[in-house]
From TrEMBL:
InterPro entries in alphabetical order: MATE_fam, MdtK-like, YsiQ
Keyword terms of this UniProt record: Cell membrane, Coiled coil, Membrane, Transmembrane, Transmembrane helix, Transport
Protein name in UniProt: Putative MATE family efflux protein
Main location: membrane
Native species: Fontibacillus phaseoli
Length: 470
């Protein structure tokens, strides 16, 4: 029994959770950069369409993030409190609901890609490319939904290696097929951006199949075909209580980013392409920090479920101690070498000049993002999701989005003003989240609940001892 406890403790250690997530994210970043580099060989307009479309897809994924994210936290908490069967049931329910939402989104994007792109202010010259890319990749949203819920469920059982290996395989296949479609190699037709879209869907389909196989064996009792008829209202309610604020929070961020992308589209395709290239470079800054923050969320949810509130409280500060220096150093490296790297993607002088200025602002942006990732994930892990939702709704839309429009578009200051508003938003929310975590509200509530359970158990024991023997 002691050996099993030690094994579970090691399984949920921060490092063992974090390193596969980091490798997964790092390789996705490298392969994503190669992907962007390949698409840039088609045209800068193709890059702008891919960047814009990905923002749209990210916005729509928030519709099923409510269930997937909430389920992940509940699964880790249930495993921490040794309620394995309930964790298993939660995973099954989340899979069914998330896939249903993904199917609806697939049908929507296949049916109306051009009106959606036009409504979001995409420049008219980009609409033909966007119509094809959105309908093909968007038609595979059911696969994105399945991958999201399967990967989240698997990670929160403590298995971060399975999703890592799957993501590596998916991205390698995607890059090989991209190369074939873009350059007409390996017997592939030279289909350009249409081929890239087809490559994306096929690689995601293969990844979904692998993740589903891993998912079936992720719990002590293997999931079988008959188990997919299970639906427990009480457990689904637990998912939604934690999940709906997470969904709103995620939606708030993604839709605010989508709004900002539409503001950039108003400024012109140069600004839109510059932001797309910067998105790729910015990912480099917080890869390890993001991995640590996600691992901390899994670990803290597990510790919280097990009633280890002191360990849960201190875990986030360990993440910040490591994560903040890393993102600062990485952002400074980008300031020094970022323009040279960008030269691999585009030769457009206007885009390069814009990105060079944005790299300095990125040095200010990344520490704020690191604090939000670490402390925000920790608050979510203990169920304090309404707080992170509330500050997101207020400051993302008033500061990041509203002020971006006022200063960037209305007053004509441009993309520099938009970045400055995004930086301000990150720091305001980061500071508020820090003081919320220091307050230990949900951790104290957990301690009170555990104390009541101990008192009730003691009372039952006393009553049993006081009862006359039969």
């Amino acid at each position: 029994m002691m050996k099993n406890k030690d094994s579970e403790k090691n399984k949920f250690s921060l490092w063992l959770l974090a390193w596969p997530i980091f490798i997964e994210q790092f390789l996705q970043f490298l392969l994503g950069s190669v992907d962007t580099l390949m698409v840039s060989r088609i045209s800068d307009n193709a890059v702008a369409v891919v960047g814009f479309s990905n923002q749209l897809f990210n916005a729509l994924t928030t519709l099923f993030a409510t269930v997937a994210s909430g389920a992940g936290i509940v699964i880790a908490q249930k495993i921490g409190s040794r309620k394995e069967e309930e964790a298993r049931t939660v995973a099954i329910i989340a899979f069914k609901v998330t896939v249903a939402i993904g199917l609806f989104l697939s049908i929507l994007l296949i049916a109306a890609p051009e009106p959606i792109a036009g409504m979001l202010q995409l420049p008219e010259e980009l609409l033909p490319l966007a119509k094809v890319y959105i309908s093909v990749v968007g038609g595979g949203m059911i696969l994105t939904a399945a991958m999201a819920v399967l990967g989240t469920a698997i990670r929160n059982t403590g298995n971060t290696k399975g999703p890592m290996m799957t993501a590596i395989g998916m991205n390698v296949i995607h890059i090989i097929m991209n190369y074939g479609f873009i350059f007409g190699e390996f017997g592939f037709p030279q289909w350009g951006l249409t081929g890239v879209a087809i490559s994306t869907v096929i690689s995601r389909l293969l990844a979904t199949i692998v993740l589903f196989i891993i998912f079936l064996g992720s719990f002590q009792r293997k999931i079988g075909p008959r188990d997919f008829s299970i639906f427990d209202r009480k457990l689904f309610k637990e998912i939604l209580v934690i999940g709906w604020p997470l969904g709103v929070n995620s939606a708030s961020w993604v839709f605010s980013q989508l709004a900002i992308f539409s503001f950039l589209a108003m400024l012109g395709s140069t600004e839109l392409a510059a932001r797309t290239y910067m998105n790729t470079l910015e990912s480099f800054c917080f890869l390890l920090g993001f991995s640590l923050a996600l691992a901390a969320q899994i670990q803290i949810a597990h510790l919280y479920g097990a009633g280890k509130t002191k360990e849960a409280y201190h875990a986030v500060f360990k993440v910040l101690k490591v994560g903040l220096p890393l993102v600062i150093v990485n952002a400074f490296i980008l300031v020094l070498f970022g323009r040279n790297v960008l030269g691999l993607f585009t030769k457009d002088t206007d885009i390069l000049n814009l990105c060079t200025a944005l790299l300095w602002l990125n040095l200010l942006l990344q520490p704020g993002k690191m604090v939000n990732m670490a402390i925000g994930n920790s608050l979510n892990a203990v169920g304090d999701t309404k707080y992170t939702m509330n500050i997101s709704l207020i400051f993302m839309w008033v500061v990041a989005t509203g002020c971006s429009y006022v200063f960037g578009v209305s007053l004509g200051i441009g993309i520099i003003a938009i970045y400055s508003c995004m930086i301000t938003d990150e720091y305001v929310r980061g500071v508020l989240s820090f003081f919320r975590w220091r307050g230990r509200k949900f951790l104290r509530m957990k301690e009170d609940d555990l104390q009541k359970e101990r008192e009730q158990e003691q009372n039952r024991c006393n009553e049993a001892l006081a009862s006359p023997a039969l």
